[in-house]
Specification:
Length: 433
């Protein structure tokens, strides 16, 4: 060992610390429709939001899509309210959802004419559970504060919380110009991007303070500052969280399509959520042709579940497969089990409390199969190339049987179902007595 050889610590007396998200420190906001009460912030679970892409004036199509998003797991659904025709339909959308037994709170997304729509359509103002206000799009010059004030007045009158949502693409230009001006007088001017960050954060917080001065409580205000790049989002939200304790809505805007959008949102949101920043999230994906709008909800649920913040659907651990995998049997089985668990969750949610935390493993060969299967609640290790055509099944860490033959998939599915009934059905039976 020479003098420059780095010293590597091979053992320590202290246990390795388990990573876990830092607690959130925000105030709590209640978003409510009838008996459906969704708390956002403080110790409430990180909430999932989504947004429809139907024409709100088409009440039937919008109600159907809201229902789909809610059933996929969205706890709050935002709809565009952009015209008098849309505002007129909002109470009917609400009525249809109530009739279908969907209590999910609706959020109205307002830009430019929100002050008029909320004043002229009181039934719309009442049927919504929260208003989204973009301070960059409420009006220019003298009209800005007046029109913002009219929206806040409606929120106070109907006792509705608001989200003050600033967006990189519609930033208050007067505020930005004034900050640029101040910046040019600095001995060492900031980078343009840093001025933009400041404008986003200042616009959100100043608007929230203005809303409070007009009669809103801090517990009725959620803030967001949406940008479209992960690093910008992280910079802006860290500062936002440092400067205020309002509940924060988190999301990358215009994240894009498919894999790129999913990865960009996941990368940005995961870092912030781990730091305890973000009380409600939305994954803004552009649906690919033919893709369901609910995909954004699926991705949001997966992000929270992967971080261990929430559990929505039993998880299936499957190995990636490699040269040891004999066929696509294990991929097919993993897919089948995953589909089965997801589709059944609608029924199971009420029937088997706690089932969403179940862990299933489907592995391709003996290398990691038995080990990974033992770590799951229930696991199967399929035979790899050159192995005996037998698939050991593990339950709660113990090998309980071996499956052989053509019907492994169906038999394993039955074993999973039996396990769920035995373990989670017991909870229902106990509480029923
Ligand atoms: S468990 Fe086996 S089949 Fe799966 S990736 Fe590992 S070595 Fe390959």
């Amino acid at each position: 060992m020479g003098p420059d050889t780095p010293v590597v610590e091979v053992a320590t007396s202290e246990p390795i610390e388990a990573a876990q998200p830092r607690p959130r420190r925000s105030r709590q906001v209640l978003v409510q429709w009838g008996a459906c009460r969704v708390t956002v912030g403080s110790n409430a679970p990180v909430r999932i939001q989504s947004m429809t892409n139907t024409d709100t004036a088409d009440a039937v199509a919008t109600a159907i899509q809201v229902k789909e998003l809610a059933l996929a797991g969205s706890e709050l659904v935002r709809i565009t309210v952009n015209t008098p025709e849309a505002a007129r339909e909002v109470p009917y959308i609400r009525e249809q959802l109530d009739r279908m037994g969907i209590g999910v709170p609706l959020i109205g997304d307002f830009h430019y004419n929100g002050h008029r729509l909320l004043t002229e359509f009181p039934d719309c103002a009442q049927a919504l559970s929260k208003y989204r206000i973009n301070p960059g799009n409420v009006g220019k010059g003298d009209k800005r504060d007046v029109q913002f004030g009219q929206m806040i007045e409606a929120a106070v009158r109907w006792n509705k919380p608001v989200r003050i949502g600033v967006n990189w693409g519609s930033l208050d230009q007067e505020l930005l110009a004034s900050l640029m001006d101040t910046n040019s007088r600095r001995a060492q001017p900031w980078d343009t991007r840093q001025v933009m960050y400041e404008a986003l954060v200042a616009s959100a917080i100043d608007s929230a303070r203005l809303a409070e001065s007009m009669g809103m409580r801090g517990e009725q205000i959620i803030l967001s500052c949406k940008v479209s790049s992960a690093q910008d989002l992280i910079s802006v939200y860290r500062e936002l969280a440092r400067r205020c304790d309002y509940a924060l809505h988190l999301g990358l805007t215009e994240a894009g399509m498919g894999t790129r959008g999913t990865v960009a949102s996941t990368a940005a949101l995961a870092i912030l959520l781990q730091e305890g920043i973000g009380d409600t999230i939305r994954v803004s994906l552009t649906p690919q042709p033919g893709e369901a709008r609910t995909q954004e909800v699926v991705v949001a649920c997966e992000i929270l579940q992967a971080l261990g913040l929430r559990a929505f659907v039993p998880s299936v651990t499957a190995c990636p497969g490699c040269g040891r995998t004999t066929s696509d049997t294990f991929q097919t089985l993993a897919q089948k089990i995953d589909d089965f668990l997801r589709t059944q969750m609608l029924v199971w949610r009420g029937k088997y409390p706690g089932v969403e935390a179940l862990k299933v493993a489907v592995m391709g060969c003996i290398v990691n199969g038995p080990g990974e299967s033992r770590h799951a609640d229930i696991g199967i290790s399929l035979p790899g190339s050159g192995e005996m055509p037998a698939a050991p099944v593990f339950i709660d860490g113990q090998k309980v049987m071996t499956l052989r033959g053509e019907n492994i998939a169906a038999e394993f599915q039955a074993i999973v179902l039996n396990y769920i009934e035995r373990r989670f059905g017991a909870v229902t039976r106990e509480t029923a007595h």
